[in-house]
């Protein structure tokens, strides 16, 4: 696992892809380690294959990043049934690692008596998916298909993915998320950056730190995290493993959110995605994606504020040109 982390750290991948990749490999290692009763740092990925894992995991996460995917909804997961052949002999399907990774995820069994979900696939779902359930209302902009090598009789070994922008402009959306909160007064402040990275890698929607005065006049921090209900266990694992928290308050909160979409603009040094939030049919808020601007600034030496302003101005000019029929 340490070799994988080193390769990811030394790569030129975006920070988001690095964080998500580490999260997927960590989950795989934890599941395999639990199944083999060894520490996750001592797990050898003989079952999944390191090279195959890099292609499947990192390649998939790069694609999601390039497509500007901000939220993933998945149907319940068909894990198969029967038995499977492994390096340790015959095992029940789903295998031990898949069963561990499936905690908190709706699963079912249908079709041929064989493994239908791999540990890699389940770890990717745990990292990317905000909600498991029926397909939401959407207006698809693209549809992708993927097929595996195995060809079970009478059963498609295929995956279908819909890419969609928000279903309508200027319509506020409503959803219910969890607010997880804990008070901390004895955490090394240097670790907060890492904790926040791990929470976002687990699918947190937002993480905030607020200073407070606690009992006996101690200065402390209130760590608040918003997450989809499906991510509760993963968020709790991070809070209990990576901080001194002894308890976490959890409550359901309702959000009213604006539909969002992405538009790419070309600036000197690269392409920046603009996040667009539609307030009404005629009014929208727009902001450059920070990580895109950061990469351009690092690559070209341009001041990051200049890149941010360039992207915002370019988008504004294009919007005016479209509205006047000149673009």
Can you offer a commentary on this structure?
This protein has 327 residues and is an alpha+beta fold. Strand 14 and strand 15 form a beta hairpin.
Based on DSSP secondary structure assignment, what is the total number of beta strands? 15
Mean of pLDDT: 87
- Main sheet specs: 4 strands, antiparallel
Largest sheet: spatial strand order: 10-11-9-12
Reading the helices and strands in chain order gives HHHEEEEHEHEEEEHEEHEEEEHH
Count of folded domains: 3
Secondary-structure map:
Elements: H1 2-10, H2 15-36, H3 50-67, E1 73-74, E2 77-78, E3 83-86, E4 89-92, H4 96-101, E5 107-108, H5 119-128, E6 131-132, E7 139-147, E8 158-165, E9 173-184, H6 192-201, E10 206-213, E11 219-227, H7 232-242, E12 249-257, E13 260-267, E14 270-278, E15 284-288, H8 290-300, H9 304-323
Helix pairs in contact: 1-2, 2-3, 2-5, 2-6, 8-9
């Amino acid at each position: 696992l340490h070799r994988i982390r080193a390769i990811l750290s030394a790569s030129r991948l975006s920070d988001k892809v690095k964080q998500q990749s580490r999260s997927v490999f960590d989950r795989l290692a934890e599941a395999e380690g639990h199944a083999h009763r060894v520490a996750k740092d001592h797990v050898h990925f003989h079952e999944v294959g390191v090279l195959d894992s890099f292609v499947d995991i990192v390649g998939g996460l790069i694609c999601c990043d390039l497509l500007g995917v901000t939220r993933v909804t998945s149907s319940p997961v068909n894990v198969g049934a029967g038995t499977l052949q492994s390096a340790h002999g015959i095992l029940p399907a789903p295998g031990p690692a898949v069963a561990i990774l499936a905690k908190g995820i709706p699963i079912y069994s249908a079709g041929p008596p064989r493994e239908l979900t791999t540990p890699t696939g389940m770890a990717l779902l745990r990292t990317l998916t905000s909600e498991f359930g029926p397909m939401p209302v959407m207006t698809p902009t693209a549809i992708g298909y993927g097929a595996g090598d195995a060809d079970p009789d009478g059963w498609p070994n295929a995956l279908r993915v819909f890419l969609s922008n928000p279903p309508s402009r200027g319509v506020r959306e409503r959803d219910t998320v969890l607010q997880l909160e804990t008070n901390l007064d004895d955490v090394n402040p240097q670790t907060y950056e890492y904790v926040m990275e791990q929470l976002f890698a687990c699918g947190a929607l937002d993480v905030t730190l607020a200073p407070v005065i606690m009992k006996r006049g101690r200065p402390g921090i209130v760590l608040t995290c918003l997450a989809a209900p499906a991510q509760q266990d993963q968020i709790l694992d991070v809070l209990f493993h990576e901080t001194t928290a002894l308890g976490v308050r959890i409550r359901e909160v309702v959000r009213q959110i604006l539909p969002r979409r992405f538009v790419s603009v070309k600036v000197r040094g690269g392409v920046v995605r603009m996040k667009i939030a539609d307030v009404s049919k005629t009014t929208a808020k727009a902001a450059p994606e920070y990580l895109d601007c950061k990469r351009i600034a690092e690559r070209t030496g341009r001041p990051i504020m200049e890149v941010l302003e360039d992207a915002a101005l370019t988008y504004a000019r294009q919007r005016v040109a479209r509205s006047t029929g000149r673009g």
